[in-house]
Every structure is written in C-alpha cells, then in structure tokens.
Prior knowledge:
By secondary structure, the chain is mainly α. It has 7 helices and no strands. The protein has helices spanning 2-21, 25-46, 52-80, 92-113, 124-141, 145-163, 172-200. α1 (2-21) packs antiparallel against α2 (25-46), α1 (2-21) packs parallel to α5 (124-141) and α2 packs parallel to α6 (145-163). The longest helix has 29 residues, at 52-80. The model has no long low-confidence stretch (mean pLDDT 80).
Amino acid sequence: MNELLNAIFVIILTLNLFALGNGRLLSVIRIVAFQGILLGILPLLIHSHLTFSVILSSLAAITLKGLVIPGIMKKALRDVQIKREVEPLVGLLPSTIIGAVLTAVVFLVYRRINPVDQSHLSLIIPTSISVIFVGFILLTTRVKAISQVLGYLLLENGIYIFSLLLIEAIPLVVEMGMLLDLFVSIFIVSIITNHINRAFSSLDTRMLSALKE
C-alpha cells in the first residue's frame, strides 16, 4: 500500500511539471483533472479504517476536482474559443525548470528538517508545498484568465493534500464546505471569463489594468 501511495505522490509531482510545460489549455485542464482524481483516491489509501466521512470526502473530491470543475472549464474554453496560452510572462521551459528546482528544494529542506521521518505519510507535506508553489507559478506567470484559474486550482490541490493529515480531526462539514467554496469559485470565474472575452475580445488579464472608471 505504501508503494502505491508513494507512486501516486510521484505522479502528482510529475503532472505539475507537465502542467507548467504545456501551452495547450485543454491539455492543462485534463492534467489538472487527472490530478484531481488522484487526490480523491488518496484518502482511501491513507486511512486504514474507511469511515463514512472518508469515503464521502473521496467521492466528493473525485466528482468535483476530476469531473465537474474540469467540465465547467472545458465549457468556458469552448465559449471563449481559445486553444493555447500565447506569450506567457515566463516561457514554458523556464517555468518547468523553476517548478522542478523548487520541488527539489522543498524535498531537500524537508528531509533536512525531518531526517528520521520514514512513515508512509512522509511525502504528504513536501508534496503539498510543491503543488502550492507550482500553482502559484502558474497563477502569476500566465496572462490568460483561464490559465490563472488553473493555477488557483493547483494551489488549492496543494492545500487539499496537506489537509489529508487532518482529515480525522477536521469535521466533515468543514471539508465539504471547502470543496463547495472551490466549486462555486470556479463556476463564477468561468462565467466572468466568458463575459471578459465578450467585452474585450481578449482574455489577457494585463489589459484589465488599463480599465478606467
């Protein structure tokens, strides 16, 4: 079981780099959706005693992160009729290299702080921090609104991974509330994105800075 858990963490980290190095928005949405499904599986592997709250949390994460939210974003992508992220603030290759270096640094620092941690959960904290950093890179180095939403989604994925350490301590209603907030946020942003495209014929968020009263 530990090998499977570690393999999923490695795949999640690899998907981060694919998301940074891919300029096709539809591909990035699929990558984030696959990562969401993997995140939904994690609670079932981490907890030896499957309770109703754990199973419900897992199903909710798979449904929202892997199916519903990517479906909303695909629809938004079709509505605005764009396929690629053109001219990101930082190129795709440099972004990937920065993400890989930050991931390596996070793991090195964590191993230095906790040299004796050999538990099956030893990868949760460095993986969650790495995913948060990659989400932040995607959020700040892309100019298309949809790409920035994907960065926000990755950032939230990192927070979700960290929260798995506390799943038995956090009441189920709080966790469901977090997922509901995420769903509503993505839903609203997708609608706003569509309206931005209609009003300005572009999703370049840099143009919004030129708005005047």
